[in-house]
Structure formats: C-alpha cells, structure tokens
Amino acid sequence: MNTDLNKTGPLLNDKERQCCADDPQDGKNGEESCLGSWKEERKAAINALMIASSKKKQAEGIYDNAIVWKKKLKILLENAQDAHEKSTLAYSELELFIKEVEVLERNTALTGAAIEALLCLIKRIFDNIFALIHERTDTEDTDLILKLMEYIRCLEKLDEQKRQKALECVVVYQSTVSLIYSLQEDVLNKVLEMLHCANILVYLIKNKENLGLNWQLDNLRKRLIQETTSAEKIRACLHVPDDQNEMPDLDPPCNKDILKPAYQLFPIRKMNNKEDSEYYRKLNELYEQAKSKTEKIKNNMQEAREEFNKAWARKNCLDEAIKAAEAAEVSK
To answer: Which are the contacts of 228, defined by CB distance < 8 A and separation ≥ 6?
Structure first.
C-alpha cells in the first residue's frame, strides 16, 4: 500500500510524502490524520486549480486578441504597400496622359486656327459669288443675272432661237449660283460650330483660372508625390490669395467635398526623394510593437498554461492518493 501511494506522490511536498510512507491511520484521528491532511490539501489544490484556470483563460484571451490585432495591422500594411504600387503606376500613367493632353491641346489650338482660316476663306467665296450676281451702290442693289437676261432680250441682231438658247443657259446658271449661295448660312453655321467646339476644348484644357483639365491632372500628379497639398487646391479653387488666411464661402465650380482630404497620404512609401508617409510610418511602428508585444503575451500565456498543468497534476495526484488511502482503510 505504501509503495502504491509513493508512486502517486511526485507532486506532494516532503511532509505529505513522509505521511505516505507511514500508515495512513497511524493512531491519529480526524484532521491530524494523514488522510485528513490530504483532503485539506485537496481543497487548497482545487482552489489553486480554479485560479490557474482563470489566469490561463485570461492569458489565452489576451493572446487571441493580440494575434487578431497583429493580423489586422499586417493586412493594413500589405494594403498600404499595394496602394503605393498602384499609385506609383498611376503616377507614371498620369505623366504620359498629361503629355497626351498637352498634345491634344496644341493640336486643337492649331485646328481652331485652321478652322478660323477656313471660315474666312468660305466667307470670301460666298462674298465673291454674291459679287458675281449682284452689284451694290449707295442707292441700289442690282441683280446682275436679271440685268444680263434683259440685255439678251433687248439684242435686236440676235435671232429668236439663239436668244432663247442664251436665256436658258442664263437660267441654269442662275439656278446653280442661287443654290450654291443658299448654302451659305448652313455651311458657315457648321464651320462656326466646329470653331466654337475647338475653342471650348482648348479653354477647358488650358484655362488655369477655372482649373482646366491640364491644371487638374498636373495637380493630381503633384499630390501623388506631395509637391502640393489639398489645402493649396482649395485655395486655388476658391481663388484665395496666398497672403489671405480666411477662407471665403464656396462657389462653383468648387464643391464641399474638396475640403475633406486634409490628411496628406501620398506618397505612401518613399518616392521621388520623398520619405515614407506619416501614415505608413505610424502603421509600421504599430505593427512592430504588436509583434513584440504578442511575443511577450505568448510567453505569459505559456507560463499560465504551465501553472495550470501543475495545479491540475497536483489536484489529480491528491485525488489518487486519497482514493488509495480510503481503499486501504476499507480493506483493514
């Protein structure tokens, strides 16, 4: 019996192991007996086990939360890196697009000049046609074709057959010229519309005062590399002088949404001699802190688990010792 009890006692203290070596009922009764001592120790072991279990669960919960937080930060860092790569690509594409827009603006301006010259040429052609068939003086406007037809009718030496032939040719000429001249308004309106569209396109691309397309694209490019800020864009949009501190009321073409991006984000990572953004630096700092803190929390959790395992083993050891002692008492 004593040998069996000693096998269950690796986690018992010296006094308890000595009690195991003697008869569990060595002439003492109640609380003073070895069995009674183990039962008291078992109560303490159960209490210690509950405390160790609570600490273990708390440590595991803290560790789980730390892991979740570290994973979130890692995802944010990966997203930031991905956004940086995309913004770098956008910057390169934007530079190419700005050059194409500049070419478009120059070509459109040249096209506008060519359309204007064409307009003048077409107007001169119609003026020459009008001059062919009309004669203007300060007092009257004479239709030269009608005048020609009257001359033909009045020619006495011209026989009737030739007169009619000549009049028919003049009528055909009159119809053709009249048809051509009647197209003047439509043709000139179309050319004027083309010139108007070209001028508007040049204006919308090049105009700086009203923040044209070229200005907007260049401003976006500068913001991607932190050469300008959203605040400067607001001032430009609202036509605020550089030396004026107060911001006036919003007017078209500005929108209240333009006031939102107050936090300078781009460039996210080092780019064009610009350092990492404050956002990325803080995010990376939080991630490094989370990794270090998670390791410490993991060590604390492992210590709590070890304490729990010891408390569990001690409680089981006492259970077995008490069970063996009670069985030995019954067999007497």
So the answer is: 219, 222
